[in-house]
Write a structure and sequence with these properties.
Its cofactor is Mg(2+). The protein contains twelve helices and 14 strands. With 342 residues, the chain is of the alpha/beta class. It has two domains: 118 residues, no CATH class; 201 residues, Rossmann fold (3-Layer(aba) Sandwich). The strands form two sheets. Strands 1-3-2-5-6-4-7 form a seven-stranded antiparallel β-sheet. Strands 11-10-9-8-12-13-14 form a seven-stranded mixed β-sheet, with helices on both faces. Helix 3 packs antiparallel against helix 4 and helix 4 runs antiparallel to helix 5. The protein is elongated and about 70 Å long.
C-alpha cells in the first residue's frame, strides 16, 4: 500500500496530498491508501465541512470521535461541487450510535467548521426525493410574519410563530390564531410580497444539481399556497403542498381552508411521494428549520435541520447550522461508488 507521511511538519500541513475521492487510513501522521470503499450500510460517516482543514483538525476529530466510542477506520477528502470547498469524511465501521448534533456543533465550533454524522447516506447520482419546508428554509423569511407586518400586527404574530417553530405551541392552533389577525389584508399586498420572496442562499443551485440527477423536489409547508407556488417557479420544483388562505372581495377573511399542512401532514406527503416514485427510504431527504418539520424528517432516510432551532437540531439526524444550503451535497455525495468527475 502507498503511504503519505505528513508527520513533518505536524501542525500547519495542508491536505493537498490527499487525492480527492480516495479513501485513506491514518495513523501516527501517516496516510495509507486503502484499496477498498467503505460499506455504506454499516457504521457512521462523520463529515467535516466549511473549514480550512489541516492535519491537526484530522487528529482532533479522530480523538473526539474516539471519546464517543467511534473508531475511525478510513478518511476521505472530497468536493461534491466546484461551488463548495473540499470536505473530510471519517468512516467508523463499527459505530452504532450517532452523537447528539448539538454536541457535534459545540465541538466543531472549536475547530471553526461544521460536523455532521449520517448513516446509510443517500446517493446523489441516482434518483431520489427531497421534501423541503419553505419559510426560513427555502426562503429566508416567515411569510405569515411579513403579512402581519402589512397589517401592523407583526409583533403579535411573530411571537406566536417563534413559539410554534420551537415546538412550544400546537402548530394548527397557532396557525389559526395568527391567520385570524390578518383579516382584511388586501390580495394585492399578498401579490407584492409573493413577487419579492428572498431565496435561501444555495437553494437554487442545490435544486439545479439535484434535477440534473433526476431527483424529485417538493415543498411541504405550513405556509401558504401563493408563496409556495412562486418558490416552485423560482427553483423548478415538481410539486408544492401548503395551506390555502380564504379571500372574500379580494381581502383575507382570517381563515384557512381545507386540511392544514401540519407536522403529521408533512410526513404523510413525504411517504406518499416516496411510494409514488418507488424509492427506497435511503433515497429520501427532508429539510426544515422548525419543530413542525421533525416528524417529516424522522420519516425520511436523511433528515437535516437547516439553520434550525436548538430543539430541531438536537432531534435531526444532521444539521447545517450556517452557510449555503448547497452544503447538503456533502451528505449526498460521499465517495462510496464510482462517480462522475467534476
Amino acid at each position: 500500500m502507498s503511504q503519505i507521511n505528513m508527520a513533518q511538519p505536524t501542525a500547519e500541513q495542508p491536505l493537498q496530498h490527499l487525492t480527492l475521492n480516495k479513501w485513506f487510513g491514518f495513523s501516527d501522521g501517516v496516510f495509507t491508501f486503502l484499496d477498498y470503499i467503505p460499506n455504506k450500510a454499516l457504521g457512521l460517516f462523520s463529515i467535516a465541512f466549511a473549514g480550512d482543514f489541516e492535519e491537526k483538525h484530522i487528529v482532533s476529530i479522530i480523538d473526539f470521535l474516539a471519546t464517543h466510542n467511534q473508531t475511525v477506520t478510513a478518511i476521505c477528502q472530497y468536493q461534491p461541487d466546484l461551488g463548495l470547498a473540499p470536505a473530510l469524511c471519517f468512516y467508523a465501521e463499527n459505530a452504532e450510535r450517532a452523537i447528539n448534533p448539538l454536541v457535534l456543533q459545540e465541538f466543531s465550533n472549536t475547530l471553526d467548521c461544521q460536523l455532521v454524522q449520517v448513516a446509510t447516506p443517500p446517493n446523489l447520482y441516482v434518483p431520489g426525493l427531497l421534501v423541503m419546508d419553505m419559510d426560513s428554509t427555502a426562503i429566508t423569511i416567515e411569510c405569515i410574519d411579513e403579512i402581519a407586518r402589512l397589517a401592523n400586527v407583526y409583533d403579535e404574530v411573530a411571537s406566536v410563530t417563534a413559539l410554534a417553530m420551537a415546538g412550544k405551541l400546537d402548530f394548527s392552533e397557532s396557525l389559526n390564531q395568527r391567520v385570524a389577525k390578518l383579516t382584511g389584508i388586501e390580495k394585492s399586498l399578498i401579490e407584492e410580497l409573493k413577487n419579492a420572496l428572498p431565496l435561501m442562499p444555495g437553494i437554487k443551485a442545490l435544486c439545479q444539481i439535484l434535477k440534473q440527477h433526476n431527483w424529485y423536489l417538493a415543498i411541504a409547508s405550513g405556509g401558504f399556497v401563493p408563496f409556495a407556488e412562486r418558490v416552485q417557479e423560482l427553483i423548478n420544483l415538481d410539486e408544492v403542498h401548503a395551506n390555502v388562505l380564504e379571500f372574500k372581495d379580494d381581502k383575507l377573511t382570517g381563515k384557512v381552508l381545507g386540511t392544514i399542512v401540519d407536522a403529521q401532514q408533512k410526513a404523510v406527503i413525504l411517504e406518499a411521494l416516496q411510494q409514488k416514485l418507488g424509492l427506497k427510504k435511503t433515497q429520501t431527504v427532508a429539510i426544515g428549520d422548525g419543530a413542525n418539520d421533525l416528524v417529516m424528517m424522522a420519516k425520511a432516510g436523511l433528515g437535516v435541520a437547516v439553520h434550525g432551532k436548538p430543539k430541531v437540531v438536537e432531534q435531526a439526524q444532521a444539521a447545517i447550522c450556517e452557510g449555503s444550503l448547497l452544503q447538503l451535497l456533502y451528505m449526498l455525495a460521499i465517495p462510496l461508488e464510482k462517480q462522475p468527475t467534476l
